[in-house]
Amino acid sequence: MFRRPCRMFRKPCRDPSASPFKPPGSSESPEHVKIKRKVYAEGTYKSVCKGRFIAGPRAGQACVAKTFRNPKYGSFAEQWAGERQAMRTAQQIVEAFNHAMVIKEELRVLAPDIMTCDDGTGERRMVEPLIRRYVKNNNNAGWVNPSGDPWNLVMQALSHFSYHATGGRFLLCDVQGGSVGNVYSLTDLAVHSETAGRFGLTDNGKHGFVNFFKTHCCNSFCRPYWLKIEKPSGGPISTPCAPERKKPRWKVPARVGCHGIF
Ligand SMILES: Nc1ncnc2c1ncn2[C@@H]1O[C@H](COP(=O)(O)OP(=O)(O)O)[C@@H](O)[C@H]1O
Ligand SMILES: [Mg+2]
Ligand SMILES: [Zn+2]
């Protein structure tokens, strides 16, 4: 695990049926899922129950079903539209990050399907594979997980990379998910843009960019040439960072290719 990337041997699987993960896009599914009534977790916007896929290529696997908690933020369809747009952009950024070969391991964005829940309610909810050992890496208000775990450092670098690779137009944050072997699965990502709200309720616009760089400490997975917000008086906006407490075990390649996206 965590070796220098090699372009020749890394072939991400593009066949959704061969994997429990699907690229964003496919959303309406005729399949049903078995869901427990008890709420497993709650976030700011969503309520989450655990369950199991009962049909299709993921039959038997554990899943979560998410529903929006508060109708004051709009109907299910309206809130889902914002989520979906953020998810699609997140997917493009994550693909660019994978191509840039910052690490050999692969990152994936989980794409929920809208499925009918067999819990007596018959509700349609957003269903995606359960992530065991769930970790929150950063949020959309500048909070950073202080862990020196290499995966956590990669996730902070992913957020920084997103700003660079989009030419300062977007910033991917609210990075959360979990690793299984060499793959880190991400869910519920937020994207800040130059126009707050473009990517739904979690898009804080330019304030989001500033809040990220106020607390972001570049680590060994970031590149010195990646775009940053500068203070009006010059110099990076972030406060000086303490050296990484624990050196990541990964060997970082000398240089990465940066694919201009968007
Ligand atoms: N795929 C998943 N596997 C396991 N737990 C999850 C998964 N997705 C979400 N959760 C749990 O549910 C919580 C809320 O879900 P999330 O999608 O982040 O909602 P919100 O938009 O309200 O932040 C998360 O903080 C996490 O604890
Ligand atoms: Mg969340
Ligand atoms: Zn950085």
Automatic annotation (TrEMBL):
Region (Disordered): 13-32
A GO term, aspect molecular function: kinase activity
Keyword Ion transport (UniProt): no
Any Pfam family hit: Alpha_kinase
Domain named Alpha-type protein kinase: residues: 1-232
Keywords: ATP-binding, Elongation factor, Kinase, Nucleotide-binding, Protein biosynthesis, Serine/threonine-protein kinase, Transferase
Keyword flag Transferase: yes
Lineage: superkingdom: Eukaryota
Xref: InterPro entries: a-kinase_dom, Alpha-type_PK, Kinase-like_dom_sf
PANTHER family: ALPHA-TYPE PROTEIN KINASE DOMAIN-CONTAINING PROTEIN (PTHR45992:SF11), EUKARYOTIC ELONGATION FACTOR 2 KINASE-RELATED (PTHR45992)
Protein name per its UniProtKB record: Elongation factor 2 kinase
Gene source species: Apiospora rasikravindrae
